[in-house]
């Protein structure tokens, strides 16, 4: 998963990676977070959705991407995006077509991963990516007209095809935007229910159910997520379709501007070290 032509294994995952919660197109915060992760020696950084820097395809967006790319290139690092719900999917698809591996190259340093992507570390730890989530505030957003404008895109939704792409072979670490249906997350979200419409709650829940199906397919040891704009680190027991129990550690990172939104993670040992973005 490198653009260096001398490297043929594009699914190589580093033994230490950076993970970043929802940047939301916040250039200064994102640059700061990248700089801190790079200073920690990380060469491969994964955004856990709601990157936001591709929205309507304006020239300013490309300018921001190029400036972030420059920061990465100074440390010979690469950024990989697992998509979220707040992404301009129409512009993404129009301006950045998939290559033969399903990657969308935003710059020579920033790559958008296809849903169901799989990689592995030298030690054999399997890392996969399953982006997408349903917007709970969909009712306040508008779809694009003729592929232009808008603030809600149907492509945010995880589809049956995405779940087929993910497959059923076990995964050690799943990079995602949505998160497993843990009791700990439900307890944190419950007090905020009144903010949303019944339709929004139901739509968001449908999306999380699709994501949960993916979790039950691949039974990840760890899922790294964004989306909920909070921090959570909990391990709970789930069951696959055959009724077999498995434990999954669900780590959710907070978003731009909040503490506990960036971390250094070792896939082989599942060690997480939060890096304060200051
Ligand atoms: Mn978000």
Molecular structure report:
By secondary structure, the chain is α/β, with parallel strands linked by helices. It has a single domain (17-274), classed as Metallo-dependent phosphatases (Purple Acid Phosphatase, chain A, domain 2, 4-Layer Sandwich). The chain contains six helices and 13 strands. It has helices at 27-39, 59-74, 89-95, 160-166, 183-189, 198-218; strands spanning 17-20, 44-48, 78-82, 104-105, 110-112, 117-120, 126-130, 173-176, 222-225, 232-239, 245-252, 262-266, 271-274. The strands form two sheets. It has a seven-stranded mixed beta sheet. Strands 6-7-8-9-11-10 form a six-stranded mixed beta sheet, covered by helices on one side. Helix 1 (27-39) runs parallel beside helix 2. It is globular and about 50 Å long. The relative contact order is 0.17. The structure holds manganese (II) ion (MN).
């Amino acid at each position: 998963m490198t653009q260096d032509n001398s490297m043929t294994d594009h699914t190589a995952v580093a033994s230490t990676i950076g993970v970043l919660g929802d940047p939301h197109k916040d250039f200064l915060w994102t640059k700061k977070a990248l700089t801190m992760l790079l200073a920690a020696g990380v060469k491969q950084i994964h955004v856990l959705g709601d990157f936001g820097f591709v929205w309507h395809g304006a020239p300013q967006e490309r300018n921001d991407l190029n400036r972030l790319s420059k920061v990465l290139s100074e440390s010979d690092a690469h950024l990989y995006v697992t998509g979220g719900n707040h992404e301009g999917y129409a512009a993404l698809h129009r301006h950045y077509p998939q290559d033969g591996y399903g990657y969308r190259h935003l710059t020579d340093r920033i790559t958008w991963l296809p849903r169901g992507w799989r990689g592995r570390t030298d030690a054999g730890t399997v890392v996969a990516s399953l982006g997408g989530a349903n917007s709970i505030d969909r009712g306040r957003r508008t779809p694009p007209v003729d592929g232009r404008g808008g603030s809600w895109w149907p492509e945010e939704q995880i589809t049956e095809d995405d779940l087929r792409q993910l497959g059923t072979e076990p995964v050690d670490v799943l990079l995602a935007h949505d998160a497993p249906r843990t009791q700990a997350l439900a307890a944190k979200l419950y007090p905020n229910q009144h903010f949303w419409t019944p339709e929004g709650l139901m739509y968001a829940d449908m999306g999380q159910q699709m994501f949960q199906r993916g979790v039950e397919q691949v039974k990840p040891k760890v899922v790294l997520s964004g989306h909920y704009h909070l921090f959570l680190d909990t391990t709970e027991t789930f069951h696959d379709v055959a009724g077999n129990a498995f434990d999954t550690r669900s780590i959710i990172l907070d978003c731009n501007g909040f503490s506990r939104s960036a971390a250094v993670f070792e896939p082989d040992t599942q060690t997480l070290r939060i890096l304060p973005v200051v």
